[in-house]
TrEMBL record, chain A:
Record-annotated membrane-spanning stretches: 50-71, 122-144, 156-176, 182-199, 230-250, 286-307
The keyword Transmembrane helix appears for this protein: yes
Ranges for domain ABC transmembrane type-1: 118-308
Family to which the UniProt record says this protein belongs: Belongs to the binding-protein-dependent transport system permease family. OppBC subfamily.
Keywords on record: Cell membrane, Membrane, Peptide transport, Protein transport, Transmembrane, Transmembrane helix, Transport
Native organism: Candidatus Fermentithermobacillus carboniphilus
Entry's Gene Ontology cellular component terms: plasma membrane
Taxonomic superkingdom: Bacteria
InterPro entries: BP-dependent_transpt_permease, MetI-like, MetI-like_sf, OppC_N
Keyword Chaperone: no
Protein name: ABC transporter permease
Membrane topology: Multi-pass membrane protein
Protein's cellular compartments: Cell membrane
From TrEMBL, chain B:
Organism: Candidatus Fermentithermobacillus carboniphilus
Keyword Metal-binding: no
Domain of life: Bacteria
Organism phylogeny: Bacteria, Bacillati, Bacillota, Candidatus Fermentithermobacillia, Candidatus Fermentithermobacillales
Record-stated family: Belongs to the binding-protein-dependent transport system permease family.
Annotated protein name in UniProt: ABC transporter permease
Subcellular location: Cell membrane
Domain ABC transmembrane type-1: residue ranges: 97-294
Length: 321, 314
């Protein structure tokens, strides 16, 4: 063969073509990329100035919420304060140096009640959020992967999803009698639906995409397909759901408290405080009892909403380039 | 199309049936205090027994369920116990339904018109001042619980505008605030989706072609973008119906509108079990109906939707 070519072609041209030697390092260089998923996510998130500043505010606020009871000179959120001279309860005491946010209609310190309430409401939100993510992803993954379960879960989903969430929550808290556990249970019972449906749709869309097929054909192990190809698409929604669980649970809690299905009155929560404030709102001098809890509540819900959306955009691999 | 509608109707019907049965059975788990008009503690055990027996809650659950269904088919919704003792639930409901329907429908109509308009406005001015203002509004409405901002609207807007703070049947001016309050959430929802779909559509290649051809911006907006963005919007309609239903419960109670939502809050506070049960059933049925209509609308709007295998492969 080589003898033949030597005869047919001029000598100069022979040098133009040589077989490349296989070099393992050079082959690796093409496959290498300095793309890091989390690095890019943080980089894109940092570009959103509003979200970053809200994140800083929120970290400060959360830290304060949990440190507050251990600070010096803090009052008990459930203790009824009385005038040291006359012994009369300090009812509806306007904000002062002693009571920073004033006192409520039976003489409890609103400042410590607001932070104690924030703790309760955040706890509900975090519990429901974690449940939503764990249960929602499990059901969604089963729903998307196991074809035998598809029809069954779809029917189940249609039934629950057809009834307004408000009604389901009201019915459940009404039947189980209001308490902390009841509220968490009721919200857990409805919260996972959206998550499960999203995960299922994503899995069905992504599972049979060409690049996954290619990965599988090239012998990529399943765990690598899940962590590298599937999970990045789910991270954005997981984060969003976790972040939005807090505003939505706080909203439901305020609503349920309003209709008389909230937490017991001796447990301060943002819902209870707003409702107490509502009862006092008609006289302008007592409006601070509504405004302080509402302001803290709005700051928390708006921050979580904005941060959640910004982070969810940032963690979507499609926005990384 | 007709086959799809019928199948979907049948599906909704089965759902209604299952939901009614579930709600009825769940209500049986309630403590029996909700069945007494007089104060519970004053009665002797024999009296309690007799009252419970006369209502029939001591029968086995399947007997109760059968009786419940046969009553339901005859249009008997049970009798109120605490709210207005011994008055049939149907009589309590009859004068309230028109209010809820009037408020609900006008809120849906207003949020549809204003929300779509706002979405179009935002898409046209994308990235500019008004887009940012309305995005701020949407974020606010979605993030802050409606139970909070509606309270402040009632408190301060009535002060500034001198609108009445409570609903009064004879003063049409007192209708304004509740209807606006009910539509705020819907407006934000419609605007958000409308903007998103329109921006998606604007980025497509055929729009660039239309521009290159020399079509005017307005013509592109109306002829292409708006029309194509409308299709996925139908998807949002059922959600907005559910949203309005939820909102109406709170707002009717806040402005003391004599509708079903306010009644539900009252019934829950006074623990009137039969009334709560009926209202929960009505609201669940409304939700199912809303989603049914939304699905049918979507199928009419968008012929591309696969009618046959909707549930399985969305």
């Amino acid at each position: 063969m080589s003898n033949e070519r030597e005869i047919l072609e001029p000598v100069e041209q022979q040098d133009l073509f040589t077989f490349a030697k296989f070099d393992e390092q050079a082959a690796e260089r093409i496959g290498y990329s300095d793309y890091s998923y989390w690095g890019s996510t943080v980089r894109v998130f940092m570009k959103n100035k509003v979200a970053v500043s809200l994140l800083v505010v929120m970290i400060g606020l959360l830290a304060f919420t949990f440190i507050q009871p251990f600070l010096p000179n803090q009052k008990d959120p459930t203790k009824i304060y009385t005038d040291p001279v006359t012994g009369i309860q300090l009812r509806n005491h306007p904000p002062s140096k002693e009571f920073w946010f004033g006192t409520n209609s039976i003489g409890q310190d609103l400042w410590s009640r607001v932070w104690s309430g924030t703790r309760t409401s955040l706890l509900i939100g975090i519990l429901v959020g974690i449940w939503e993510v764990c249960f929602g992803i499990t059901v969604g993954a089963l729903w998307g992967y196991v074809r035998q379960l598809d029809a069954l879960i779809t029917e189940l989903y249609n039934i629950i999803n057809n009834v307004p969430t408000t009604i389901v929550l009201m019915l459940l808290t009404y039947i189980m009698r209001p308490s902390f556990q009841t509220m968490v249970l009721a919200m857990c019972a409805t919260g996972w639906l959206g998550m499960a449906r999203f995960v299922r749709n994503q899995i069905i869309i992504i599972r049979d995409r060409e690049y996954n097929l290619a990965s599988r054909c090239l012998g990529t192990p399943t765990y690598r397909i899940i962590t590298k190809n599937l999970l990045p698409y789910l991270v954005s929604v997981i984060v969003l759901r976790m972040a939005l669980a807090i505003p939505s649970t706080i909203g439901w809690e305020v609503f349920l408290t309003y209709i008389g299905l909230g937490l017991p009155l001796d447990t301060p929560s943002l819902g209870n405080l707003v409702n107490e404030g509502r009862q006092a709102m008609m006289s302008p001098s007592l409006r601070y009892q509504l405004i302080f809890p509402s302001a803290v509540l709005s700051l928390i819900t708006i921050s979580f909403y904005v941060i959640g959306n910004a982070f969810s955009d940032a963690s979507d691999p499609r926005n990384h380039f | 199309m007709l086959r799809y509608a019928l199948r979907r109707l049948w599906q909704s019907f089965v759902t209604v049936f299952i939901v009614i049965t579930l709600v009825f059975l769940l209500m049986r788990l309630l403590p029996v205090e909700g069945y007494f008009a007089e104060s519970y503690d004053k009665l002797t055990p024999e009296q309690k027994e007799a009252i419970l027996k006369s209502i029939g809650v001591l029968d086995p659950w399947y007997v109760q369920l059968r009786r419940f269904y046969s009553d339901l088919l005859h249009g008997d919704l049970g009798t109120s116990i605490v709210y207005r003792p011994k008055v049939p639930v149907r009589e309590i409901l009859a004068p309230k339904i028109p209010y809820s329907v009037a408020f609900g429908l006008s809120a849906i109509a207003i949020s549809l018109v204003l929300g779509l308009g706002m979405g179009v406005w935002q898409a046209r001015d994308k990235g500019r001042f008004w887009d940012k203002v309305w995005t701020g509004y949407i974020v606010f409405i979605n993030a802050v619980p409606s139970a909070v901002y509606l309270l402040f609207i009632q408190l301060y807007v009535t002060q500034i505008t001198k609108l009445p703070i409570l609903f009064d049947r004879d003063r049409p001016i007192s209708w304004i605030l509740p209807i606006i309050s009910m539509s705020l959430g819907g407006i934000a929802g419609y605007a958000m989706w409308m903007r998103r779909f329109m921006v998606d559509e604007l980025n497509k290649d055929y729009i660039r072609l239309a521009r290159a051809k020399g079509m005017s911006s307005t013509a592109i907006m109306i002829k292409h973008v708006l029309r194509n963005a409308f299709v996925p919007m139908a998807q949002y309609l059922p959600t907005s119906v559910l949203l309005t239903i939820s909102g109406s419960i709170y707002i009717e109670s806040l402005y003391s509108i004599p509708g079903m939502g306010g009644l539900l809050v009252d019934a829950i506070q006074r623990q009137d079990n039969p009334l709560v049960q009926t209202l929960v059933l009505i609201y669940s049925t409304l939700g199912i109906l809303g989603l049914f209509l939304g699905d049918i609308l979507m199928a009419i709007f968008d012929p591309r939707i696969k009618l046959e295998r909707r549930g399985g492969s969305r």
